[in-house]
Amino acid sequence: MRTYAVVGGIAAGKSTVARALARGRGVRVDVDRIGHQVLRLERVRQRLLAQFGPDIVRPDGTVDRRRLGRRVFGHPARMHQLETIVHPEIARRVGSRLAALRRDRIPVAILDAAVFFELDLEPVDGVLAVTAPRRVRRARLEAERGLRRTEAEARLRSQPRLASWTRRADVRIDTDCPRPVLRARIERAWRELRRLHRRRATGRKSP
C-alpha cells in the first residue's frame, strides 16, 4: 500500500484536496476526526481536566473543543501541553488504521493530517503541502466556521511551524483559485507524487 500525507495550515483547503486525491484511488484517513475521538478517551479527558481546568468540558462531561481551543490557540506553551497529551494517542490510532487498510489490501491511503510532521508515524511515500494566503484562510474561518476575527487570528497563530511543514513537503499546491483550476492542480500534484515515488522506488534522485 502506498501512503501519502496531505499537510497544511488551518482553512488552507487540506481536506478538500485529500478527499479529491482519495476519490477513486484509495481511502482518506481523517486524522482530525481521529483527534476528536481521542478527546473522548477517559484517560485523555482526565489529563486535559488536570491541565486546563474543569471549564473545558460540557455539562455532559465531554470536552468542548471550542472552549479548549480558546484556551490553547495563540498560546504556544499551552498548545505544547495539549500536543503532549493527545499526539501519542493520535499516532497510535493512525498506525492501527493504516495496518488495517494494509490487511484489506487498499492500494492507496491518503493521510489528511495537518500535524503529520508532529506525529511519530511510519514513513510515507510522499507529502503534499496545501497552502493559501493568510487573508483567504482567515476569511474561510470566519465565513465557514463562524469564528470571530480574534478567534480566527488566534487559530492562525497556533501553527508557527507551518512554514517548516511546507518546506519539508515534496509537492505544494495553492488552493486560492477557481474550482476548475484547483481540480487541475490536484491532478498535477498527484502525478508529481507518483513520479517521485517511482524515482525513489528505483533508487534515482530527483534532479
What can be said about this structure in brief?
The chain contains 9 helices and 5 strands, in the order βαβααααββαααβα. The chain is an alpha/beta fold and 207 residues long.
Keywords:
globular; 5 strands; Rossmann fold; about 210 residues; alpha/beta
Briefly note the CATH topology name. Rossmann fold
Classify the secondary structure makeup into a structural class.
alpha/beta
Order of helices and strands: EHEHHHHEEHHHEH
Strand percentage lies at 5-15%
CATH class: Alpha Beta
Low-confidence stretches: none
- Give the overall average pLDDT: 90
Shape: globular
CATH superfamily, please?
A: P-loop containing nucleotide triphosphate hydrolases
What is the helix content? 55-70%
Question: Could you characterize what this model shows?
Answer:
- By secondary structure, this protein is α/β, with parallel strands linked by helices.
- The two termini are 26 Å apart.
- The model has no long low-confidence stretch (mean pLDDT 90).
- The chain has helices at residues 14-22, 31-39, 42-52, 65-72, 76-103, 134-145, 149-157, 162-168, 179-201, and strands at residues 2-8, 27-30, 108-112, 126-131, 171-174.
- The longest helix is centred in the middle third of the chain and has 28 residues, at 76-103.
